[in-house]
């Protein structure tokens, strides 16, 4: 392993460690015991799911309790706008325009964070513990101002950490932050399961069944994520002679799941937002809606399936540009046997990608919902979703691929230097 790769891995681990430290820095003026007591009683609804994605930062009401979700929400809005307005889509494709595009996302993140942080701060005013203690230990107006600034600072720090990991480390920074948050909650989840078994609330055979379901889910994810359709490509003799000392790929790999983990993250962010806001409502009808949107409800999982499928198609259409691939292939003197270069190649690639995306979207939807349905039928007293497993496995696979690609790149540079 090269020194450069080791440095990138250490940088990534260092930033993840910094992220975990921030999860233990509480917002000033909060009674943490009252907040934790509240989240312990809401572990099976949307608040529990939000807490899991944040790595238990929410129940501590840390400065990063809003997590990276405001940034993801802003990214969703911008992606939808870029797909709707051609000028914005063109800006995204240009090098200078991409910088402006990302700047808009950052500004939108600030606005969304402020709205959410003010809402959370005001909602805590009515929160009391079992002994009647208030969740806020200082003046309300002061608390709203201090907590809003603290949460905004925390979210901005997370966004900066994610960008630094992407630029200087290994893997996608935002995905790795979510990955680290979920993984950090595993030890407490195991401990909670052991307590349920010891207290007689769960049968040991049920635990074994859950482990089998997890392993089956992980196996299915790995199998599909490594699956791809290799479209054969031929090159003219002239091109082959010019590149006889270079590796020329003779196929175009099209993954079954072109969208990756993004659809599951986007769907979770959209569904958790209204469910979290409604959870603290005192209105009877709004509480009924909140129950329907609880992660432990069938309605939530139906919406999850539909949103995941939608975003799988939407994001795949953005990431896979058949027209650009066909044009680059034509410039390089390559062609798909039996397919006309140019528009014919683009149409063929689009059809192939659409068929693969259909099955990839169904797979993502089922992985995001089926494990919970199975566990629910077994009568397990806690929420278990496939989204967390999906994110953990996909991010791990993606990171390993990037490490492997970096190793090959370093090896190629070394061989080129020796040759020179």
Automatic annotation (TrEMBL):
GO terms for biological process: intracellular protein transmembrane transport; protein targeting; protein transport by the Sec complex. Keywords: Cell membrane, Membrane, Protein transport, Translocation, Transmembrane, Transmembrane helix, Transport. The chain crosses the membrane at residues 9-27, 61-83, 104-122, 142-161, 173-190, 202-224, 256-278, 298-322, 356-374, 380-397. InterPro entries: SecY (IPR026593), SecY/SEC61-alpha (IPR002208), SecY_CS (IPR030659), SecY_dom_sf (IPR023201). It comes from the Bacteria. It is found in: Cell membrane; Membrane. It is a multi-pass membrane protein. Pfam families: SecY. Belongs to the SecY/SEC61-alpha family. Component of the Sec protein translocase complex. Heterotrimer consisting of SecY, SecE and SecG subunits. The heterotrimers can form oligomers, although 1 heterotrimer is thought to be able to translocate proteins. Interacts with the ribosome. Interacts with SecDF, and other proteins may be involved. Interacts with SecA. The central subunit of the protein translocation channel SecYEG. Consists of two halves formed by TMs 1-5 and 6-10. These two domains form a lateral gate at the front which open onto the bilayer between TMs 2 and 7, and are clamped together by SecE at the back. The channel is closed by both a pore ring composed of hydrophobic SecY resides and a short helix (helix 2A) on the extracellular side of the membrane which forms a plug. The plug probably moves laterally to allow the channel to open. The ring and the pore may move independently. HAMAP family: SecY. This is Protein translocase subunit SecY.
